[in-house]
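Progress note, sequence design subtask.
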């Protein structure tokens, strides 16, 4: 499944408070922890992220502390003091990341917490769900084999990098439009694992590259030389795209839609990013209807509607755009997109 499908699935588990042991599998760099964090955020619940490969068994189980009860029969005993980072109340997701990178002894301790929802004197609050995640063997991530009895107690969800999901995230989080546009043109470079290289492209490394790019720093240190070289060549496309501000302001009657596919992606993505109000959207629609082809109009409509929906401005957009008879006449399916 793609990241958006995974979020929807997790939201269902959360809404129904389904305490099912859940294991999320996927290659490094696709943002498994970010996906789970986003699901928790959408549900309005807390989120605790633990990297099991960085913990020792006592870090999770706690420490034995001698007690001195008045009852002489209990003298000489100890009590386990659980760690402070484990939840005590409320609702949330306890996320155990890198489960299969943890050594077997650590997996054994985690197994008790996952399956029994308790460990030592500690018990997971009723409002908390436990999700786990790990990399696959083929990712060469130094993972340990998950015992079959343990694997059989999980439901297993596989997630893959997906450009449309990344694009929605990028637009809503204001990642550089040049990066989003480039990956639309070269979606295979969204995630291209190179086990023999230190830096290679992934959703996580492109987000790092975004910060470098915005500060005029080289991005090959994040995504590798090959992807960076192609991206730098693509930047030349931006020197030749139309004046987007004129189109947004309704003055694009003398501006033509680019003929090259790279320029078409750059122009459409740029207009999606810069369409901040309903009037601009209406102007862009008019220009695209007059100058481009249906697939670009459909792409723009779908993405700009998604953006306005995330900002809770969809009703305003629908009222403004659907008042234009030319748009209604040409784009008969627009109402369906608005209601999706």
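Output:
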């Amino acid at each position: 499944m793609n990241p958006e499908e995974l979020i929807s699935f997790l939201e269902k588990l959360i809404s129904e408070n389904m305490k099912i042991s859940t294991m999320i599998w996927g290659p490094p760099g696709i943002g498994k922890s970010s996906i789970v964090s986003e699901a928790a955020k959408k549900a309005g619940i807390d989120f605790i992220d633990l990297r099991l490969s960085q913990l020792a068994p006592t870090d999770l189980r706690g420490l034995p502390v001698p007690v001195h009860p008045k009852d002489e029969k209990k003298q000489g005993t100890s009590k386990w003091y659980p760690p402070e980072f484990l939840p005590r109340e409320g609702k949330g997701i306890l996320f155990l990341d890198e489960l299969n990178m943890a050594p077997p002894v650590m997996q054994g301790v985690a197994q008790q917490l996952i399956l029994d929802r308790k460990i030592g004197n500690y018990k997971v609050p009723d409002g908390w769900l436990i999700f786990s995640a790990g990399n696959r063997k083929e990712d060469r991530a130094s993972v340990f084999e998950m015992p079959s009895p343990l694997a059989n107690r999980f439901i297993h969800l596989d997630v893959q990098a997906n450009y449309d999901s990344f694009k929605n995230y990028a637009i809503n989080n204001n990642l550089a439009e040049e990066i989003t546009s480039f990956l639309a043109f070269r979606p295979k470079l969204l995630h291209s694992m190179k086990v023999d290289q230190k830096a290679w492209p992934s959703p996580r490394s492109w987000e790092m590259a975004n910060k470098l790019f915005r500060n005029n720093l080289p991005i090959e240190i994040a995504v590798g030389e090959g992807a960076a070289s192609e991206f730098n060549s693509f930047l030349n496309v931006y020197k030749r795209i139309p004046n987007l501000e004129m189109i947004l302001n309704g003055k694009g009657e003398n501006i033509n839609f680019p003929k090259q596919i790279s320029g078409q992606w750059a122009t459409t993505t740029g207009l999606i990013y810069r369409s901040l109000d309903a009037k601009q959207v209406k102007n862009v629609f008019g220009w695209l209807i007059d100058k481009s082809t249906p697939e670009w109009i459909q792409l723009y409509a779908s993405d700009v509607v998604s953006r306005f929906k995330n900002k809770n401005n969809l009703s305003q957009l629908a009222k403004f755009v659907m008042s234009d008879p030319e748009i209604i006449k040409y784009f008969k399916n627009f109402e369906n997109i608005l209601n999706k």
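The chain is about 50% helix and 10% strand. Work on this subtask will continue into the next period as scheduled.
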